[in-house]
Amino acid sequence: MSQILSAAQARRIALAAQGFTRRRPTTVTARHVHGAMERMGVLQIDSVNVFVRSHHMPLYSRLGPYDAALFERIFHARTTHYVEYLAHEATFVPASDWGLWDFRMSDFRRRWADDPDSWMNRNQRTIAWVKDELRARGPLRPADLREDAPRERGTWWDWDDVKHTLEHLWRTGDVAISGRRGFERRYALAEQVIPVDVRDRPIPRDDAFRELVRRAARSSGVATESDLADYHRLRDRAGVRQAIADLVDSGELEPVVVRGWDRAGRPLPAWRHRDAVLPRRVDASALLTPFDPVVWFRERALRAFALDYRIEIYVPAHKRRYGYYSLPVLVDDRITARVDLKADRVASALRVQSAWWEPAAHPDDAIAIAEELARAASWQGLERITVSGWGDATDAVADALKAIGGVRSERHEHERQAIAQN
Fold first, then answer.
1. What values do phi and psi take at 93, rounded to 5?
2. pLDDT tens-digit profile of 76-118?
3. 81 near 92, Cβ under 8 Å?
4. For the whole prediction, is pTM greater than 0.85?
5. Could you say which DSSP state residue 237 is in?
6. Which residues contact 147 (CB under 8 A, 6 or more apart)?
7. In 151-269, at which residue ranges do the beta strands (DSSP E only) sit?
8. Residue 101 region by backbone torsions, left for phi larger than 0, else alpha for psi between -120 and 50, else beta
9. For residues 397, 398, 404 and 410, what is the CA-based torsion angle, rounded to 10 degrees?
């Protein structure tokens, strides 16, 4: 008989699996970062930099303030033991996992090879030139290739073709990312980045699916089939179902029923990882990026946290409901609000462009939110916090900032264009 969990218990299990029941260290070290990565498994990369780049946030959410130089040293240096691949979207993953993604690389390669009109088949000369350059010169930025590009381009060479080549070769595993300078990637042949014992040990598809579903379950704590498939964007649902069945047979996954997790009035099948812990309570507060594993799968965020989230970056300003890039706010085991933040570095201000309550909010959550905002401003070296009047939580957050003290707080008017409603 399946174990029955309440929705609150499922949330606590999920948050514990993601590390939110751990005390934040006084000083964040590489050991703490590696531990957080072990629990998350992957760290999604995104270029949005309104407050900080999105991939800096999940570590901050779990560990608290850390030195940006530590992140650069761990993830962007050529000697790092993390590399980038499409393990969800573009993500940092352990370099030792390169062979785990062989099935995905092979799928890309087969898809393009089987189509005579594919971009790869139509641009073999560009591909050969790019590979030769990387082989001869080692890791290169796209700009380095631009500087050394053939001057007599004729009909075959085009800068966009070179960029496409690098991205295609990265997807097929022929090229790997060898660190970054700022946010600009350095590309290299995989043999120049990935150790030979890793590169020459591809994991068979069925074994890879089983391992990835196992990891997704461990990082999720409790999850449905859709949750487990989305964690690593596994499109072959038959393969996911077989992996779940194998892991149930081995005792690693346990079937459970979560109250409230249903579809059309019927409970959704769900599984709990055998190592998942059910804490009595979660005493945490954190700002989350929309690309945090806790909320990145919108179906799960709605089901588990009643968070109906839509990224509004590409929504015209006058049609935005919550703001350009609002961050969900975790308080205890609830998503209690969302805040749209902007780091105004010229004015040394953290601007709360909007703040909105979520259905799970409690009246006293504003204090925890204010404390998180003050911590975030300090982490980014911003001297004050300004709060607009856009959103039903802005007054409470502004009052709480004054109540906690220790930070300069002010109000500001939001641009009328951005606050117009549908």
1. -140, 160
2. 887 678 999 999 999 999 999 999 999 999 999 999 888 888 8
3. no
4. yes
5. H
6. none
7. 175-181, 184-189, 222-224, 253-258, 262-263, 266-267
8. alpha
9. 150
